[in-house]
Recover the amino acids of this structure.
């Protein structure tokens, strides 16, 4: 399978800078993760914060995912408005307005969320009405990242009981996300960290079972830990996100028996050569407003001689240094630059240009970006 | 003047994370730069890529700016659609579709742009019709940043002649932007670099005058170099952008006779405390999707005990470490986090919440963000 050609007729029509996805490899990544979950008998609930795309969420669900995970209420609102059902919000929702919006979503669609404090439980319980069916809550457990979650087994047990005792709420399980272990390079070290993190969840789950509060769901994990967590007999569902596009950083990870993670890099930024006046170098119109900077430097370039290097050169510019004696790309030619940190790169754009296997193009909107209080769907362009 | 209170009634209603601007200090920054330009007898054309806000552009023009600078055709389209006239696009516009859009703008409003290659000139000339008034072009000169611009005096002279010879175009001047010198810490080193960069422009301007192609406009400079360039007898207009919000990095610069740059930090991200389970630490809902990471770590925090520290903790989270024995902020309380790199932080949001001197709030839209080919104004919320 050849990668997309930045100078193909269809991509030549696209306004730059623009996000481009290799659609065939994207579908392969989706299928590969789903197959691994299927083999392990574990549910898949892909995290949509990576792609913010109802189209990709739909493909994940069609492949067999039980639903999706969202990081914010905005993402959940936009996904549900686009027809995606069964959404887990993976971070506590705090504030009267957001709790009101949560209740509205609950009345429209299957939704669950995590809590890590009794005051959050009380606020949600109070916002629900007597006609509402119980809203399912998971206890968020801090399994080492020190970000959100209850910080002890005792606190987790108390919070589960608090949920169960509250009106119009239902305790359904636990979430533990070990963000800190996903990128540990050495496979054995990573495996050990993954199992250590899961042990905290298992201890709490055992205590809950002893109290007749068995967690029906134990949700968590990410792309880097997924192979271990599928084997680990702890999680009932996994929340990997990055595997659809793959962060370059994951390329450094060593997996079981020396194999890398079996997912391909599928996300690019398309740029135009806008200046060709310097020897051995051209300037393109994609800089730090088009490509996230908190990853390794972009090092996959299509459309320029091999061994060329991209360097950020401001908000709207990058410079590409060419190898000695290489031909200078012509003014106006196009280059694809591999995104190295996908989630924040996606967040810089409003839509994807997806190159299908047959070379044609689809445009998919990106949803759930901050909109300063503008109502849901205001910001959503139509897909093609 | 006291800074905005994140737990004031008006800010408590704002959905987090959100951009917040200190409106009174913003107005003072605008007036202070304009006054400096006025004293020096140099025009001000503030760069709008910093704020992407028609409201702020309007205030800059009302204060006396001759117009604004935009980095992209998208920004120019949205500014002109919002009623801002006299726009200079500060980067070459390459590609048939963008050239068509440029011509459309030229037919609606006063617009100028820079070019750095004869092929760009030819494309624009060919796209204009016989009924069009001449479009004013500036020759972009590389004065040391090695990004865009002609790379020699000879090339600059040839390009100016090429413009003058082309149909429906008018050569009006030069642009040189020395991005690389804006952040040099030592004032003497910076002054020397600024003067060295301007010398290249001066040489070309002299050559052009000798050829009866005197540049009416010499445009350039930025916030860090502005004080020197106002004194420097080279530029007819300055393009500073950051001074409206000020990047934290500029706080490190030493100015003339030991004084810092006289502009205040006015840009914050408002966040909510969403997790309070760990000793000496809380978690807020603003991370790398709310605050740009390519600046110093955020170190101005309002709403938490002094000597607290913010650390990025993922796309949607930050952790705030509290000083020993400090009271833990309550769940749901609000914090203002000073943005340290303003342009890319603004680009993550869709609008500003501006706190006026009387404590009331305005919401101003942010325009000109990439929109995947969606037509102008689709994406623009209404200001209040």
């Amino acid at each position: 399978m050849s990668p997309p050609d930045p100078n193909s007729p269809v991509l030549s029509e696209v306004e730059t800078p623009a996000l481009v996805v290799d659609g065939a490899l994207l579908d392969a990544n989706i299928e590969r993760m789903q197959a691994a979950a299927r083999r392990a008998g574990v549910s898949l609930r892909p995290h949509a914060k990576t792609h913010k795309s109802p189209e990709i969420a739909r493909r994940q669900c069609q492949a067999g995912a039980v639903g999706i995970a969202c990081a914010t209420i905005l993402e959940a609102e936009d996904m549900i408005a686009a027809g995606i059902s069964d959404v887990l919000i993976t971070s506590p929702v705090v504030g009267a307005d957001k709790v009101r919006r949560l209740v509205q979503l609950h009345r429209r669609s299957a939704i669950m969320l995590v809590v890590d404090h009794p005051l959050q439980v009380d606020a949600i319980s109070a916002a629900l009405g007597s006609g509402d069916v119980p809203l399912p809550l998971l206890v968020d457990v801090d399994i080492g990242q020190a970000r959100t979650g209850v910080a002890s087994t005792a606190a987790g047990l108390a919070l589960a009981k608090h949920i169960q005792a509250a009106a119009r709420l239902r305790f359904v399980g636990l979430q533990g996300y070990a963000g800190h272990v996903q990128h540990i390079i050495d496979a054995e070290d990573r495996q050990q960290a993954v199992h250590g993190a899961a042990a905290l969840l298992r201890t709490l789950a055992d205590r809950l079972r002893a109290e007749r509060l068995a967690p029906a769901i134990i949700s968590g994990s990410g792309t880097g830990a997924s192979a271990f967590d599928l084997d680990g007999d702890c999680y009932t569902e996994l929340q990997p996100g990055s595997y659809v596009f793959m962060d370059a950083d994951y390329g450094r990870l060593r997996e079981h028996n020396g194999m890398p993670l079996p997912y391909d890099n599928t996300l690019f930024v398309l740029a135009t050569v806008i200046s060709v006046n310097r020897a051995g170098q051209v300037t393109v119109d994609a800089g730090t407003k088009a490509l996230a900077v908190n990853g390794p430097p972009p090092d996959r370039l299509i459309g320029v001689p091999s061994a060329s290097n991209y360097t950020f050169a401001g908000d709207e510019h990058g410079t590409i240094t060419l190898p000695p004696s290489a031909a200078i790309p012509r003014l106006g030619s196009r280059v694809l630059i591999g995104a190295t940190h996908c989630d924040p790169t996606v967040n810089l754009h409003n839509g994807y240009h997806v190159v299908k296997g047959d070379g044609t193009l689809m445009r998919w909107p990106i949803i759930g970006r901050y909109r300063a209080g503008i109502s849901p769907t205001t910001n959503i362009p139509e897909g093609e």
Observations:
- Residues 376-384 of chain A have pLDDT under 50 and may be disordered.
- The first helix of chain A runs from residue 9 to 12.
- Residues 17 and 271 of chain A are 5 Å apart (CA to CA).
- The longest strand of chain A covers residues 267-278.
